[in-house]
Amino acid sequence: MRHEEFIELAALQAFDLLDAQERQVLQRYLERCPEAEAELAQFQSVAHGLAYAAPEVAVVPSLKQRLREWLARELSTSTLSPGCLATYGAALPWEPGPLVGTGMRTLYIDPGTREVVMVIRCEAGVSYPAHSHVSLEEILVLEGDLVLNGRLYRAGDYIHSLPGSRHCLSTQAGCVLFVRTLLDNEQFE
Fold first, then answer.
1. SS3 76
2. Checking phi first, is residue 53 left (phi over 0); if not, alpha (psi -120 to 50) or beta?
3. Mind listing the pLDDT tens digit for each residue in 101-148?
4. What is the Cα–Cα distance from 171 to 153, expressed in whole angstroms?
5. What DSSP line would sit under 77-134, residue for residue?
6. d(Cα 137, Cα 1) in Å, to the nearest integer?
7. In this predicted model, which residue has the larger pLDDT, 175 or 55?
8. 23-70: per-residue pLDDT in tens?
9. CA distance 89 to 87
10. Do the beta carbons of residue 96 and residue 26 sit within 8 Å?
11. Of 26, 58, 121, 164, which has the most beta carbons under 10 Å away?
12. What Cα–Cα distance (Å) separates residue 82 from each residue in 71, 86, 87, 113, 156?
């Protein structure tokens, strides 16, 4: 692959617009050319920062009330107790993750706080580049192993990363993780 092709794939990857085959091509290039990881991280950092660069837009005054009314109707027709939401994992498809060899199931997104709760599955040997967080991140290892900054975690282990913390992740044998964080929380370096 020529460097110009890498630039195009890296820019698209920063916005999560690559299909599975393109992600594999990009991953193979990064394996052959590790110095390109820094360039990809720069693209991702810019892409993640764009959400905070948009001008503030005034909300229509009636929007909050309409949302509350809609939510009240939705909860009143639920078979759960009032105030409870449920997601059946088996009904959710595994979506491609940001890296080759990863998949994710988004369980819940709070549009107000931008909190996201998800299950992430990683195949053996997957590595996630070094990054820091602008807010907290919680990880519970459900299956397999997770290596965070050189320390090994196994099923049942819990990691609470504070704002400003920096780490890189990998798995030796593969893993399934429960993750709670904010959308656009990662700042790649």
1. helix
2. alpha
3. 999 998 888 888 888 899 999 999 999 888 888 888 999 999 999 999
4. 9
5. T-SSPTT-----GGGSPPEE-SSTTEEEEEEEEETTTTEEEEEEEE-TT-EEEEEEES
6. 35
7. 175
8. 888 888 888 888 888 888 888 888 877 766 767 777 677 777 777 776
9. 6
10. no
11. 26
12. 11, 11, 15, 21, 30
Q: Which residue has the tokens 């370096």?
A: 189
Question: By CB neighbour count within 10 A (0-12 exposed, 13-18 middle, 19+ buried), where does 128 fall?
Answer: buried
| C-alpha closest to that of 106 among 93, 18, 41, 122 | 93
Task: Take residue 9 and report the two structure tokens written for it.
Answer: 């794939």
How far apart are alpha carbons 114 and 125 in whole angstroms?
A: 30
The pLDDT of residue 83: 63
Q: In residues, how long is the chain?
A: 189
What pLDDT is attached to residue 174?
96
At 61-96, the pLDDT tens digits run 777 777 777 666 655 554 555 666 666 666 678 888
3-state helix, strand, coil in the chain (%, to 5): 35, 35, 35
pTM of the predicted structure, to 2 decimals = 0.56
CA distances to 33, 39, 98, 106, 108 from 14, rounded to whole Å, are 18, 11, 9, 19, 22
Rounded to whole angstroms, the Cα distance separating 110 from 91 reads 20
What is the Cα–Cα distance from 157 to 142, expressed in whole angstroms? 8
